[in-house]
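Pipeline run #58 for the internal structure catalog. This entry was flagged by the ingest filter as a single-chain record with no existing model, so it goes straight to prediction. Upstream metadata was stripped on purpose; only the residue string is passed forward. Reviewer on rotation: M.T. Logging verbosity set to normal.
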Amino acid sequence: MNLKIGDKVKFKNESGEGVVCKIISDKKVEVMVEGIEISHRVEDLIFVSDEGNVYSKINEGKIKETVKKGRAAKPQSGGVLEKHRISSNRGGSAIIEIDLHIEELVEHPELLEPYQKLQKQLQRVKDCIADARYKKISTLIFIHGKGKGILRTELMNYLSSLADEGVTYCDASYNRYGGGAVKVTIKGLHS
């Protein structure tokens, strides 16, 4: 069985399934699971056909050919913002709330090292901002929680780097989020 970008796979040693989104080598691929890209060894994956048939044998040699040919395509999805809560402000414009707690982003957070968790959380921020720009959504709320402050610090550093691109941020409503969220505004989307 040949594995290529866009193929649906299940995991041999854990629950869940995803879509192959990047081929790293003939023995390793990235799988998109609930909007998060996670590296997996090919031997730990089970191919699922469009008809729902399950194949446990994946031909690693064919994966190597795919890498050499440079095939690359994004998996089909409705965008990362589709999974998050949408509310509206008094003006009626959409506000998307993105919960960055790792339990909300990956199925098995206990399998990740702390730095991997932070990477997944920051990647979700980047993906959501890109998706918001594309969909012309100007306000996002990132819920980071009130732990040790590491995620908040990294989030602020990243958002500060986007100031030249019209991205501003401030603490979100304390009454609603208790100091554990940041409101991001993207300017210049409707011009």
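catalog note: Helices lie at 60-69, 102-105, 114-135, 150-161, 174-177.
catalog note: The CA atoms of residues 78 and 131 lie 10 Å apart.
status: ready for reviewer M.T.
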